Each structure stands twice: as structure tokens, then as C-alpha cells.
Amino acid sequence: MNKKNVVLLGKGSLAIKVANWFFENENLVAVVPDMPEPTWTDSLAEWAKSKNVPYFNLMTFCNGGSILLCFMLMVTISSAYILI
User: Which segments of the chain have a pLDDT < 70?
Assistant: First the structure.
């Protein structure tokens, strides 16, 4: 069976549990954690670093960041399965 490409958007412990499942069972392309991340829950960005999964701060790319990078990220997201 072909693995699906997945970009996961979210925050906290639940997002990390879901990310672990996709990491083990599908092709987790990247994660987009809520930024700034809340201090009251686990960090999705730290989890991504520990698994060598790319992560993006959408605010950096799309608010005053590179229009081209924002567009590329949106194309990647639109061609993958998304969890919010």
C-alpha cells in the first residue's frame, strides 16, 4: 500500500500523538505548530526536531516573510492530507 503524504497542523500532546502515528504509518512531510506554542502543553516543534521532521512557523512565512516560501508551503499543504 502506498503511504500518504501528510502535513500536520496543531499543538500540544494530542497533536504529538497523532504526529507519532503518521510518522510510523504514513509519510509525515512536515508539521506546522501553533506559534507561539503554549507553555501549558508539550511542544510539537520540539517533537519534530527530535524526529528530524521539518516544521514551519506559518506566521514567519506568511506575515512579512517570503511570499515565495509561503506559496510553496501552501502548495505542499494542499497536496497532502491535513489535520487541524
Answer: 59-84
